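Why does residue order matter? Because the sequence determines the fold. Keep that principle in mind as you read this record.
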Amino acid sequence: MSAATIEAPSRQPRTRVKRRRSGAPIHIALIAIVAVGLLPYLFVLTTSVKTNEQFATSYWAPSFPLHFENYATAWNQIAPFMLVSVVVAAISIVGIVALSLLSGYVFARFQFPGRRFFFTMVIALLMVPSIASLIPLFVMMRDLGLLNTLWVLIVPRIAGGAVLGTILMKTFIEGIPQELFDAARVDGAGAGRLFRSIMLPLSLPVVGTVSLLTVIGVWNDFFWPLLTVTDNALKPVSVGLLFFRGQAGTDYGAMFAGYMIASLPLLLLFLFLSKYFLAGIQGGLPGSH
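Structure:
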């Protein structure tokens, strides 16, 4: 008994050391991934406060003094473009969330002929590459007279975003216990009341996921606005940054300051909404319930 009591404590530190050693490669790999991911942002941040002379003499390293006036110059240039992106993103979010919630609710909670067929067709739309529908979509927007308007940026975004949104919403709503809907029906709640009082509050995580994906899509969309919008007052920030680079191509500090300002909304949104984003993605993926 005395020998066993002496050996037991001596094995515990060894197992802890082994666990620490086994976890060290994982920590090193994670640190390397974070460093590689943050390196472009650090480069943009350091370059955004340099003059052209400082940029030429110290390409990678920070240089003093710091010229924060580059941000004022960049903001004056890209503020109208960011306003356009905010308006397009806000209207697109409302349209995508409304269509996705209604269609996902119908697919998840109602039985009707052709239910599986129609949902399969919705899933099949994800397999169509965007480049294949580019010319037909452009011709359609031209015939509708929507070229060079805000609606040419909003309508295709809503139509495309509602496809993935419907799939996420339908899968998420199917994970809500059916007993909640049955109990509400016993109390006399109709389909509209079930939608407003039960389904909508419980679906907020996936609503946040769809909203964040919509903002990312609007912020990163470049080719479609470049093709369909010629008025500078209607261009989003992705195209506006290209216009800024063309006007001030030699002012690297102001140019990188514009890149930094344009990326801040996405960084802040993902920083504060990452928990809800991951919860919505996990709950909206097939087989996650």
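Residues 44 and 256 are 6 Å apart (CA to CA).
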